[in-house]
Amino acid sequence: MNDTVGSGRCRKELEQFIRELADQFLPWYESASNRNYIAWQICSLLTIIAGFASSLIAGLLGEGAFRDYGKILLIIVPALGALAATLNAQFRFEDVEDIRERGRIEMQDLIEWARGQLAMADSEETCSSVYEALRERVKNLELSQHVDSKKVFKKRARRSTK
Fold it and tell me: Distance (Å, rounded) from C-alpha 27 to C-alpha 5?
């Protein structure tokens, strides 16, 4: 029986798993982190701009303009700011971005670690050990992401009931 890695199924499985992590898992973390970062920044900016714009509109609006369109502006602009602030508070974009970014960093590290281990693997047994270690580390990362996400939203629920 040949125990060389080049002909082994385990090496191919490990290569496939690493490829799956790099092609599917890592891009998901990058995308989730980016989406939450963009939502957080947009909502934060809208909150600031709406407050500032409302003050400017109220200060610069002439008497006739208030009756025509000013009243509507002074309702809509602050409402948009309040909506953006509420979205930020409810969906916790900043906290979720942090969780996903830490997940992205950890996933990138796992992929690099696995590639290094694969390069050094000299037997099917070593490949199998690396595969199982990688699988366990990915599972732990996914579980920690889940737990951290739940903590963020439980924290929000506790704040809203006080």
Answer: 29
